[in-house]
Amino acid sequence: MRIGLDVMGGDFAPDAIIEGAVDSLQHLSVDESLILIGDKGLILRKLNEMKADPALFEIVHTTQVIEMGDHPAKAYSQKQNSSIAVGYGMLKSGMLDGFCSAGNTGAMLVGASYTVGVIPGVLRPALATVLPCIDNRDSVILDIGLNPDCKADVLSQYAILGSIYAKYVLGTENPTVGLLNIGEEEAKGTSTVKAAYELMKEQPNLNFAGNIEANALFRESMTDVIVCDGFVGNVILKLAEAFHHIYKTRKLKDSYFDRLDWENIGGTPIVGINANVVIGHGISKRRPIMNMVIQTKEVVHANLAQKIKEGI
Amino acid sequence: MRIGLDVMGGDFAPDAIIEGAVDSLQHLSVDESLILIGDKGLILRKLNEMKADPALFEIVHTTQVIEMGDHPAKAYSQKQNSSIAVGYGMLKSGMLDGFCSAGNTGAMLVGASYTVGVIPGVLRPALATVLPCIDNRDSVILDIGLNPDCKADVLSQYAILGSIYAKYVLGTENPTVGLLNIGEEEAKGTSTVKAAYELMKEQPNLNFAGNIEANALFRESMTDVIVCDGFVGNVILKLAEAFHHIYKTRKLKDSYFDRLDWENIGGTPIVGINANVVIGHGISKRRPIMNMVIQTKEVVHANLAQKIKEGI
Fold this sequence. Notes:
Two copies of one chain form a homodimer. With 312 residues, the first copy, chain A, is an alpha/beta fold. Helix content of chain A is 41%, strand content 18%. The first copy, chain A, is built from eleven helices and eleven strands. In chain A, strands 3-2-1-4-11-10-5-6-9-7-8 form an eleven-stranded mixed β-sheet, sandwiched between helices. In chain A, α2 links the parallel β2 and β3.
């Protein structure tokens, strides 16, 4: 397995990315290689400073950087020797099995649609992430920000994409799917959510559990998959971040609240494209970068893109 | 000041409502009276059981009950001697300054629009509630469930309604207003939220602070007013409930997380109608009922309905 890591992307690149890369090695087996994509000089200097053996990595030298503030589409097409564009090119040509970056999110999405493309039959790709449940399960929620306005058929298809994710990446057999809503009754919510309910009810091979309210999230009552539009998903994720922050500020100690830390999750796969790609938070430092690499490995192991191609 | 309390509404009515009523008396001054609306026999029996003096209350006898499962509009028009319909009638005729109930929410909303009516100029009334901030401020969020689908002009007007609430009920001078969104930049979010941003930016007399992301909520970074549609507001409120529940389950102790308890807030005013009305949670027991009465008193003191009439 070959995992590409964009060393130049993120607020703390390249140093924090290289540190996370070194840490991630202990989680990779001998047939799993990490390919560092970025400025070779900077990479070697940092590895030397860390007393890490450069031979542990493959290094692909790039000369350009897509900055965090760059216009995504423009930068992607103009900087074809940037780490992001090179990473996507390697993905497309089969030189990588997975690619991850904490760099310019917009450029990562441009690369996803321009270079590797959407899986035929997928209406709209989504960003998915894991919500830790108090009973030690992990659930998957999608979309968390790619599509703030979702039509009903898109939401309904997210139920399928999420189920595939839960089954193959998280290992949940016959995952339950909840439609996020503001009441349990079928007639609740916006017209879009009501229409999505009708579509999801009729889907074969879906373990549809009906509507789920936000007070059931993170608890035993949480379904294995949570479907919502990207606006609501983003609110849920960021509100969990707020409460985790408050928990830390108040100097409380609890193993469950510790699990809410986004740094433990590391990144967000783009679900529905022809490759295994994980996007990290721009503010990622050493530990979340390590976790992003581990998560990319898991997505590649699950062969998520292929499983979606087969399942859609 | 005369506050009407629906004794027959709520999952634990009438006993828990009467218990809360008795407790609330210590928070009312001599010129503030509480009027119990419900079955007089049941009320007297419960007061007697509690060894509470019936002379402390005015009792308005009603013979019908709108059940929690009743069809709101049908029940409201057919049960004109129910505590909810009688309460609204008294509000309309000026025999009450405020009215609160933990009963059938739908019927409470029907009464609001049928009997007391929407304030001219208000596009859509909202349900507002208070979010406790870690810096000891209270912010107001609206809508939290009345209008899951909000147009941009409705959101923009919520900024005004919320500012009036913050100023007169919470005592916040020149309250800051945030538009809940999934990014800080002006161009983020759904088309509706983007349009609302443009409208809010142009509103005179509004202390508009731009977009606010969910990870800024409950923290120092929270604006005094948070504007969102009823779907998103409901998700935020219920997610806070989930985290408070987890906090309790994990047996953590913290004065801030304690403040997140919805029982401390007690109820949700209907903002934008011609009367001061507060709706309580159906599962309210003694303490939240007491807090609902106190909150109604504060809304009446602020003369919220009148202030909105003047401010719109």
